[in-house]
Amino acid sequence: MSSAPSSPSSAPVIAELEAIVGADKVRCDEDTLFSHGRDWTKAWEPAPLAVVFPRSAEEVQAIVKLAKRESLAIVPSGGRTGLSGGAVAAQGELVVSFDYMNKISDFDPIDRTVQCQAGVITEQLQHYAEEQGLYYPVDFASAGSSQIGGNISTNAGGIKVLRWGMTRDWVAGLKVVTGNGDLLELNRGLLKNNAGYDLRQLFIGAEGTLGLIVEATMQLTRPPKNLTAFVLGVENFDGIMNLFNRFQAEMDLTAFEFFSEQALQKVVAHSGLPRPFESACPYYALLEFEKLNDEVEEQAMALFESCVEEGWVLDGVMSQSLEQLNNLWRLREDISETISQWTPYKNDISTVISKVPGFLQDVEELVTAEYPSFEIIWFGHIGDGNLHLNILKPDDLDKAEFFAQCSKVSVAVFDIVKRYGGSVSAEHGVGLLKKDYLTYSRSAEEVALMRQVKQVFDPAGIMNPGKIFD
Prior knowledge:
Layout: H1 11-21, E1 26-27, H2 30-36, E2 50-52, H3 57-69, E3 74-77, E4 94-97, E5 104-108, E6 113-117, H4 122-131, H5 148-153, H6 161-164, E7 171-178, E8 183-186, H7 200-203, E9 211-219, E10 227-234, H8 237-250, E11 253-260, H9 261-271, E12 283-290, H10 294-309, E13 313-318, H11 322-333, H12 335-339, E14 345-350, H13 356-370, E15 375-381, E16 386-392, H14 399-419, H15 444-457
Parallel strand pairs: 2-4, 3-4
Antiparallel strand pairs: 1-2, 5-6, 6-9, 7-8, 7-9, 10-12, 10-13, 11-12, 11-15, 14-16, 15-16
Helix pairs in contact: 1-3, 8-10, 13-14
Keywords: FAD, Flavoprotein, Oxidoreductase
Pfam family, one: FAD-oxidase_C
Protein name: FAD-binding oxidoreductase
């Protein structure tokens, strides 16, 4: 375990931080530095100067102004569930944690909006919405620990993008503290606001490099009714796309996911969940819809039967209860947690939906040839063109050597991404892990403009430096 305990030269800064937030809200102990100086990536050892826990926007402003004066880099810390190193503090930075800024307030039933401090847990907002008879639809495996500020900073997507879109689509307003320590209130919850540039959109997905999100006005919607899921076994990836096209043409799907037999085996062994059916199939599609009435159920079954007749589906099951629905979803949602024990090297890539079959085939041929001794786990969000490629580390291989081997092959993977006009980061952000590959998805002109935008909001360069680009 690595840490960067405070030195005598940092003592005055620590004292000033304690004066801002209280002595009990500034921590330099080894355990806190380690836990709050990292995210779910395991490629970097955390080494922050200290971790500070503000409780208000005013305290965040004071912290940023102090950091600017002292030329002290800041790394924002939310639920630390990121997968690209965006929340890693490995160079003596000051970590600003939003764990104590977790209040929900100002619910408006007419506008269907609610104000959330940055540290509100995703699941906390989901439960709050349910209590109001409403729904917050952005959902993913880390909903129980990820925080709204981090979700916004990475424009988190997840499993319901097909129907409800990304986090960006649910942010009605933001309060942010810039690298100058200025507090900006952006958009104020308005649905229609064409009075100049929408600066709110710049901070969504910026990974804390422009400033710190301290509060968000989030939009809610009506809850879905009687969600029902199919898990269908498929012989090949063309079959999955045929399924998607057939169902999408006839029904309003809320989700369409896929995973491989290797992924299913890992989850079943780890969780004890039953297989969806006895047949073992190379791939599985999980599709979800609202079963509003008997006619919808009959339509879904007719589509399923037609896909079987076409030879696209080998076997399948449809949920008959909420418990079965949840268990079928766990077969997909438990994959990341299950494979984490193998220190996976992850690629989060995307292209337009129509190009997914050729995209997957080209990537799979490459990694199978380059990783003959590595286990490869596929899953992803077919409904939005997002594929997750996971390479599992062999137990007897050193972590550094494993990541070095995977990084070399990633260049070839990203060459394919570029050829298909795709993204090297569909939903996990760039952070440290992918900044060397940013130009595979963004032109040199775009990156130059990004740097200029950062300079405007963070002229001293203290906001999460080294993330997205150097």
